[in-house]
Amino acid sequence: MSLIIPTPRQNHILAALPDADYVRLLPHLEHISMPLEWMVYEADCPLGYLYFPATCIVSLFHVLESGASTEFAITGNEGMVGISLFMGGASMPSEAVVQSAGSGYRLKASILKKELALNGKLQYLGLRYVQTLMTHMAQTAVCNRHHYLEQQLCRWLLLRLDRLPSNDLTITQERIANGLGVRRESVTEAARKLQIEGLIQYQRGHISVLDRPKLEGRVCECYVVQKREFDRLLS
User: Fold this and answer.
1) What DSSP string describes 29-79?
2) Model confidence over 69-111: pLDDT tens digits?
3) Contact 55, 77 (CB under 8 A)
4) Residue 206 in 3-state DSSP?
5) Which of 140, 154, 148 shows the shortest CA–CA distance to 73?
């Protein structure tokens, strides 16, 4: 049975390009598999590509000297990974790791530089995406400081559902805990409460969202702010 390869247009930024810009970039877009826990880029290392996820989700992490880490943003088919190239820098002090396996497309940094020099639609869309990512990071910081863990978990789940075609997530509680920067036992307790209320069903390494409207009713305003800003800038 052959695997179905997603088209570049499954990435929202590439889909929004005018036909002339898209046709110009198409020969340079390389389809790649993005397996679970693949390191897209490491901290302080030069980036050679800009990535456009199609069917995967990439987490952006900051890792402390102690080894502890916290997720501050995610990117799926709505955006791109490697914005330091887009903004004129060569590297990032953070890491990007695939959290939900799939595939995407990548563009060489040298080709991106030539494309940006044309002042085309990719530059316009990219800058708007950077603004949505800044909102994402700001709301994540606010949420982690001021809201209950159950609300954070609801936001964490909804952000991923927005980027996946189903209501099912393959994820361990340990990975959720690392993403939220909390103990695994705390995530277990928060997930248990949501399961008792019938919002989710959790089995080892797998979460199914059973009642999204109720989940949206439990989430804090941070999710709404992030979604509204994305719709305003990139819908």
Assistant:
1) PEEEEE-TT-EEE-TT----EEEEESS-EEEEEEE-TTS-EEEEEEE-TTS
2) 788 999 999 999 999 998 888 788 899 999 999 999 999 999 9
3) yes
4) strand
5) 140
- Cβ-contact 51, 102 below 8 angstroms: no
- The DSSP secondary-structure symbol of 81 reads B
Contact 148, 213 (CB under 8 A): no
Tell me the CA end-to-end span of the chain in Å, nearest whole number.
35
3 state SS of 148: coil
Triad 214, 217, 223: Cα angle to 5°: 120
Please tell me the predicted confidence (pLDDT) of residue 203: 84
CB count in 10 Å sphere of residue 70: 16
Question: In terms of residues, how long is the chain?
Answer: 235
Cα distance between residue 18 and residue 105, in whole Å = 18
Going by the DSSP 8-state scheme, the letter that residue 208 receives in this structure is E
Q: How many CA atoms lie within 13 A of 47 on its CB side?
A: 31
Tell me the C-alpha distance between 89 and 112, whole Å. 13
Q: What is the pTM of this model?
A: 0.90
Instruction: For residue 39, count CB atoms less than 10 angstroms from its CB and return exposed for 0-12, middle for 13-18, buried for 19 or more.
Output: exposed
Mean pLDDT score, 158-177:
87
In whole angstroms, what is the distance from residue 195 CA to residue 233 CA? Answer: 34
